[in-house]
Amino acid sequence: MSSTKWVYLFEEGTSDMRGLLGGKGANLAEMTRIGLPVPPGFTITTEACNAYLASGSDFPEGTLDQAFAALQKLEAATGKKFGDKANPLLVSVRSGAAISMPGMMDTILNLGLNDESVLGLAELTGDERFAYDCYRRFIQMFSNVVLDIEHAHFDEVVEKHKRKLSLIFDYEIPAKELQEIISEYKVIVKQAKGFEFPQDVKEQLLMAIKAVFDSWNNQRAIVYRKINKIDDSLGTAVNVQCMAFGNMGQDCGTGVAFTRNPSTGEKELYGEFLVNAQGEDVVAGIRTPMPISKLKEELPGVYQQFVETCQNLENHYRDLQDIEFTVEKGRLFMLQTRNGKRTARASVRVAVEMVNEGLITKEEALLRVDAEQINQLLHRQIDPGVKLEPIAVGLPASPGAASGKVVFDADLAEKAGQNGEKVVLVRAETTPDDIHGIVYAQGVLTSRGGMTSHAAVVARGMGKPCVCGCEAVKIDVNNGCFSVNDIVVKDGDIITIDGATGRVMLGEVPMIEPTLSDDFEKLLQWADETKTLTVRANADTPVDAARAREFGAEGIGLCRTEHMFMAQERLPIVQEMIMAENREDREKALAGLLPFQRDDFYGILKAMAPYPVTIRLLDPPLHEFLPDRESLLLEIAEMKHQHADEKLLLEKEELLKKIHSLSEANPMLGHRGCRLGLTYPEIYRMQARAIFEAILLLKNEGIKTEAEIELPLIMDITELSMLKAEILDVYEEFKKDTGAELEFAVGTMLELPRACLVTDELATEAEFFSFGTNDLTQTTFGFSRDDAEGKFIPVYIEKKIIKDNPFAVLDRKGVGSLMRMAVEKARKTREGVLMGICGEHGGEPSSIEFCHLLGLNYVSCSPYRIPVARLAAAQARLKNK
Ligand code: PEP
Ligand code: MG
In angstroms, how far is CA 871 from the centroid of its own chain? Predict the structure, then answer.
């Protein structure tokens, strides 16, 4: 007999055992341990699940013996007997992975009922209706989860009987009618499966446990894990627990509550309660429940006990708790507690207030807030100055505002989203099968369900705006529309939803950019006190620079000057420069660009003063500044057809010739970066002159600047030496012209593997380095980003060749090794030389952690990601102290 322990009674576990017992199992054990009213139960471990899945579908040796031994303990504890005619023990069977996956896995309630034990239950409770209601629910749930028969078949039967008796609610169906329903349910099972609904309660239990294990690999669980980057190998535990009944009358019920508001973070008990209801009724969003505060009026004693229990749980776990409970005949039972999912706004507020309350430390607060999630706080809101005319108001389930075309189907939402269209998914309620549609929608609107319904929980987790339970919205899927009173909104019409207030508007509504709350500022201030990395911004204009400073940037790590070449009034001059036949003509055109560039640099250095600004000299291949070849060909054909002016036609044909001559097989690896500076030195010379003139103007205004002139795509010291010499030559000229002495630095990007291998040489000339990990990833992997991301990276991730998209999350093994080598070699030559990162990875938390570990001086990212980067940099320090 195997000595492995596969089964733990609740009293045998603790909250530390979540890897083995799953989150739900570990917390049920913890609540039992601290003496809260938890119905007895046991947990079958995630290890048992993994062994079961690995074997195909065999329970590892000893599992069943241990489970039935544990079941006997439950019988002893309750005085009931599993499958007994007179006093039956009923259990729930629920999944619970180490990381909570709401709505992803399956639950079975009332297991242990059969044609005989249902009589015992009726007799014992003196409530025949209750007993048959449990049995009906059980058959339906079991048939759905274990036997894979769709709910719709059973729902139809119930609806038919309600219609017959003109009833509105399920709980009004009398016992006799329920018995008929049960008979019809059994016929459905027999027809679908070819066998009778299982009457042997042990067989029911085994089938249920298997189904929970198997559900680890159902489609929606796989999708959820993929979206949330949860390891597929964790497995789920199974919790078997004595039932507490919330459906035994008006002094019963079931609810879900958060110890603080999960949307705003406000310190208030927040939740919903359904009288005379069981289990999943609240979460499923089928009946709209009442707010928890109403429980105070209905069952004041229970409410008081509940409030105290919530407070205890929060103090015990030192975090916001998401709690499920049931009241059976006025008696409170706790069914689950876990750290509650919350919006970014709530996450920040709760963390900061818990520090103020002395519950947690600043370090804990910094580590609690998900750096990636706070990106949501930088989401758009409806402009408060605009007068709105809402057509309906629902529950404000997930903040932020969204506009888009109405879509009623998750598949269509996905398709439209993938095509870059903005859509709002409108549904009566969502289920886990709609997840892929929610991912691609701008927001979600449902007509049913509360703040803890599936749509609300999922949308909050994803940071998508969501309005729930908007009952005025009557959806007519068959006719592709919804109506609110006499307003009809069709599939494809544009609406706006405001997840912060629950309002729904027709058409698009003006929005404003977000600002940082006081709590958020406080948290970021703690982050700044903690982190060692500096956070800079990638910004190309004074406006972006100013925004970056508002978000806390301490410098610009990358100013891409090509964006300045693209602006409207400059493009013709740039084109003239490209079309020039010789250096003299090119210089003439460049002279026209110089004043523009000087003003650009003046503006951006001023906006960022006294912090450093890295100005990168021109990088992209020149054809990017010329019209597209295909459209020019068409234009010429049209001009010929119309017998256009000869001179004009000739000009166009010259342009076409130039485009041909500049066209490259592989522009990403072609004539770009410093290679442009070496073939056309006058371009970089003009840019250097413009930078010097800007610095001098600011110097004369008494403004201190720190300009860093940066050369792109360097691979060898000779390239760097030659270009640095050009820049210094321009400086000498400038000094002669103006008599002014300036301070500036010259350095280089590290974007090519070869550059990383020779930084010891590069450092003899370079005064700073910045990793351009966009290009460095392309050239290390040999992936052309534009082709790879659309075509094969998703397949590579699917096939587990790579874990993440390397353009989003820095590849520590390959690209990271080159970076490590580059840092070591550079600093050997030039001790303490300034090194940073300005590729997009500079705003991604796990990449930022790697940069911290490498000992870089700064990360640079887009202005809107600055707060994320500040927090991630602090977390990197705390995690690696
Ligand atoms: C890079 O290559 O990482 C970089 C920042 O340069 P760009 O994205 O402009 O090529
Ligand atoms: Mg680059």
Answer: 16
Tokens of 534: 């500096």
772 pocket-lining for ligand 1 (C-beta < 6 Å): yes
Task: Name which of 2, 434, 705 is nearest 426 in CA terms.
Answer: 434
Q: In Å, how far from its chain's centre is CA 717?
A: 42
State the SS3 of 801-850.
CCCCCCCCCCCCCCHHHHHHHHHHHHHHHCCCCEEEECCHHHHCHHHHHH
Q: Is residue 619 a contact partner of residue 673, using CB atoms and an 8 Å limit?
A: yes
pLDDT at 279: 67
User: Is the C-beta atom of 775 inside 6 A of ligand 1?
Assistant: yes
Please list the residues that pair with 750 across neighbouring strands: 771
Ligand 1 pocket test: which of 619, 776, 789, 865 has the largest number of ligand atoms within 8 Å of its C-beta? Answer: 619
**Residue in the structure block whose two tokens are 């166009």:** 652
SS3 429: coil
Q: Distance between alpha carbon 331 and the CA centroid of its chain, in Å?
A: 39
Structure tokens at 793: 């990276």
Rounded to a whole number of angstroms, the distance between the first and last alpha carbons of the chain is 46
Please calculate the CA angle 495-497-502 and round it to the nearest 5 degrees: 140
**Rounded to an integer, what distance in angstroms lies between the CA atom of residue 96 and that of residue 347?**
23
Collapsing DSSP states into helix, strand and coil, what is residue 750? strand
Q: In this predicted structure, what is the pLDDT of residue 461?
A: 62
Structure-token pair, residue 444: 């979600």
Quick one: which ligand is closest to 819's CA? 1
**CA of 172: how far to CAs of 40, 160, 182, in Å?**
31, 14, 16
- Below-70 pLDDT ranges, the chain: 1-2, 102-105, 279-287, 452, 461, 463
Q: Quick check: CB of 773 below 6 Å from ligand 1? A: yes
> What is this structure's pTM?
0.79
| Separation CA 755–CA 713 (nearest Å) | 8
Enzyme catalytic residues: 454, 838
**Are 687 and 597 within 8 A, CB to CB?**
yes
Q: How far is the CA of 773 from the centre of ligand 1 (A)?
A: 7
pLDDT tens track for 784-795: 887 888 789 989
Element (H or E) spanning 761, and its range? helix 759-762
The per-residue pLDDT for 341 is 87
C-alpha–C-alpha distance, residues 687 and 559, integer Å: 13
E-assigned strand segments in 348-472: 381-382, 392-393, 395-398, 401-407, 423-427, 443-446, 466-468
Is residue 554 within 6 Å of ligand 1 at its C-beta? no
